[in-house]
Amino acid sequence: MAPSIVPPDLGTALALAIVSASQAPLLLLDEASCVIAASDSFLRDFAQGAGSVIGLPLFSIGAGEWNMPRLRSLLSAVSTGEAEVDAYEIDLAIPDGGRRSLLLNAHRMDLGSFLPVRVLLTISDVTASRAALKVKNDLTRDKDILLREIQHRVANSLQIIASVLLQNARKVESEESRSHLRDAHQRVMSVAAVQEQLSSQDLGEVKLKPYFTQLCQSLGASMIADHDKVRIDVSGDGSATTADVSVSLGLMVTELVINALKHAFPGDRAGRVTVDYHSLGTGWSLSICDDGVGMPVSGEASKAGLGTAIVQALAAQLSARIEVTDLNPGTGVSIIRTAASDRLLKPDRPELEAV
């Protein structure tokens, strides 16, 4: 028995039915990219008169705005079966001088070896969505610029307040009042240092090692008299986190480094403070260690100060625990988070940088 042959006009009729039923702009093209059929939505949306495009090459429609070398190459590849086009975006010039953003999908219709090649071209107008996205991106950029400016101004304002506190500390006669004012000055300066470093960071994820390095450089410049005797080293694994988490981490680093510089090296004692941050699976570990005089002996422990309360509150906010270790010599304070968190982190490799 001879093989059955599908009449050539049956496939064309099927394709024409698909085009006519389409609610989206749709063209049926032959292998030379000539228009066999066009949906009413295409004729309406692209200001073509009924029947004016049938038999014409796509590239000669209108004022030739479809005549793009890249589009020619893509449709040629589709018609030969070498490629399919999915969500290919073009900018189409329109008669009034504007442009439309279009997404094209082009697929070769497999109607059998006895039927001519047909290419189905679907067109989606995404001009409005692209314009809305641009507005959104512009607003986001403006917000980021404003936020950065606010951070910078807050840091400057805090530094002015800290200077006033320090001046008042020098004027008062009471040693107790002077001590309280100096403590307040250091608290304000710690927040100012965090704000200043964040204002210089790109918004979004904050790389923690360079962030801590900059913080410690600021602290060392204001608190270390002789950098040949006392130094701060920062090590880390390349982790990054969100801006809000970095604020809490930065404040804890600042408080603990200030505490170490104030108490670990009395007199003319030399030493080193080490700041280290590493990812631990889904958690992390932040440690601030010194090789100073160590923890007070039994009976000499003093009441926890404001800095300790700040660190405890920030650690609780991050669902982390605090561990204090007598390093003999020196003291180590570790803040450890072991709970899973989807906000953190991206480990890299350990590095060490001296401040």
Helix and strand sequence? HEEHHEEEHHEHEEHEEHEEE
Q: Please give the count of helices.
A: 8
**Strand sequence of the main sheet, in spatial order?**
11-12-10-9-7-13
Helix content: 40-55%
- Give the tally of structural domains: 3
Percent in strands: 15-25%
What is the CATH topology classification name of the largest domain? Heat Shock Protein 90
Q: Could you list the spans in which at least 5 consecutive residues all have pLDDT below 50?
A: 1-8, 341-346
The CATH class of the largest domain is identified as: Alpha Beta
Brief descriptors of the model:
Beta-Lactamase, 42% helix, five-stranded antiparallel sheet, elongated, 355 residues, Heat Shock Protein 90, alpha+beta
